[in-house]
Amino acid sequence: MRFKPSENLSKEDVQSGLKLVIADGLFAESMVSFTGGAFLVAMAIHMGASNFQLGVLAALPTFSSIFQLVSVWLVRKYRNRKAIAVIANIFARFPLIIIALLPFIFSTSTSVSVLIFFLFFHYYFGSVAGASWNSWMRDLVPTEQLGTYFSHRSRLTQSLNVVLSLSIAFTLDYIKAHYPAYEFQAYSVMFLIGGGFGMLGILMLAKTPEPKSMMVNDNLFLLLKKPLKDRNFRKLLAFNSSWAFSLNLATPFFSVYMMKTLGIELSYIIAFGIIGQLSSIFSIKIWGRYSDRFSNKTIINICAPIYILCILAWAFTTMPGSHLGTVIMLVVINIFSGISTAGINLGIGNIGMKLAPKEEAIVYLSVKNMTVAFFSTIAPLVGGLLADFFASHQLVWSFEWKGDGTSAVLPLVDLKGWSFFFIIGGVMALYSLRILGGIREQGEVQKDKVVTYMRTKIRRSVVREAKARNPVASLRRAMMFFF
User: What is the pLDDT of residues 224-280, one digit of tens each?
Assistant: First the structure.
């Protein structure tokens, strides 16, 4: 195990490093599965968290990214991204183990504030580590393999998340049904296990080689101005910030909405998330391949409108007349959300790495992350503050048919509470796509040409599989055609 950057890495060193990065990703995903997402929301609600506190929890991961400036300063001073990432991750993941002890130290009412306090340090040091890691990966992963490699890594981590999330959800539901007095302690055990997995991930990261950084030795503030003076990169910042604000106004509250408004059980919520992840797993490979072949911008242009429709559809999930109808609607939304977010997240991450100059990658990516973090942080806080206002307002639009002494009412629109946020977020996301059109990316191909190419290729695959009498493969290809 060595922390000194290497002047030249052999192909064997690079391949070994890429495998270790995947191993770290699997351990990190295990950590997140036990300590984040719907489980964290459920834990906070169990503690009695208010809507504003839920908004703070949703904002913490993005708010802490503002402090990536610390990472830029550290990398310039010590020129060792690996050491910075490893040490910062140790400080980031240790608070999870402390959080596991909260039920035994503080009362339930006090624990929410203490939880937020320690999670702040968890996300703060995680953002410092993340900035160094991004620059490190920019040099370690070959540029022509960015889409393929990170799509493969995402498939593995998401597959693991599916298995763990489902197992944890069933375990929690069993404890709540048979041992409700131990529910709080169950969350503590989850954080303890998650913290342990996080530490194992650090060991993998510590073994990963680091190419020598080529960062320009300029004044820090002059460096930070360069991404803002870069016209093309500035457009990327505008798009990414607008998109992040639109999404974070609505998406952090999906779990809260299902729990409080729709009355959906935690196991169902986790199941919906798993459906979305499975859709993402099955589709991300093709997005990775096409992003390398065509462009990340094109993939975003294809996937973003689908996801916007999914956000808008959330506003109408209260309209079905039965619980089964709502569940079916949520399943469909999560399927298309998973397919579209796979391409969007891959494209946004890779286009930032691609447009950032190699010598100044950490500066460009840190400015990008900090700018996006600012808008991502504001959005859920605004949502949390306005939640009570929208909770007392409702917009109803229905169609009534009367005749022969009878009447029938057909509801067309029934918006209340969080539904308003979903509509506003979807409309704002539509505006973001106008900004995306001004970004220039090398190798960019028009969206319509890529869609035509994908349809032709998939249609041929479907015909080939059908002739080979392989109905399962043929059905899978056909699904990819329509998606």
Answer: 788 888 888 889 899 999 998 888 877 777 877 887 778 887 778 878 888 888 888
Structural contact between residues 419 and 314, judged by C-beta atoms closer than 8 angstroms? yes
| Amino acid (one-letter) located at 413 | V
d(CA 245, CA 347): 18
Q: Tokens 């001004």 map to which residue?
A: 438
Of 125, 137, 131, residue with least CA distance to 24: 137
Which residues touch 20 (CB under 8 Å, ≥6 apart)? 204, 205, 207, 208
Q: How far is CA 322 from CA 121, 266, 271, 318, 327, in A?
A: 43, 19, 19, 9, 9
HEC string of 51-66 equals HHHHHHHHHHHHHHHH
CB within 8 A of 172, min separation 6: which ones? 39, 42, 183, 186, 266, 267
Neighbours of 288 (CB within 10 A): 27
Instruction: Please state, in angstroms and rounded to a whole number, the distance separating the CA atoms of residues 188 and 178.
Output: 18
- Cα 378 from Cα 135, distance rounded (Å): 26
Summarize pLDDT for 62-91 with one digit per residue, the tens. Answer: 777 777 778 878 887 888 889 999 999 999
Question: Which pTM does this prediction carry?
Answer: 0.66
Q: What span, in angstroms and rounded, lies between the C-alpha atoms of 241 and 439?
A: 14
- CA–CA gap between residue 384 and residue 379 (Å, rounded): 9
In this structure, are residues 350 and 324 in contact, taking their beta carbons and an 8 Å threshold? no
For residue 75, what are its two tokens? 């990398």
Which H or E run includes 137?
A: helix 108-140
Whose CA is closest to 82, among 74, 91, 94, 70?
A: 74
The DSSP output letter for 211 is B
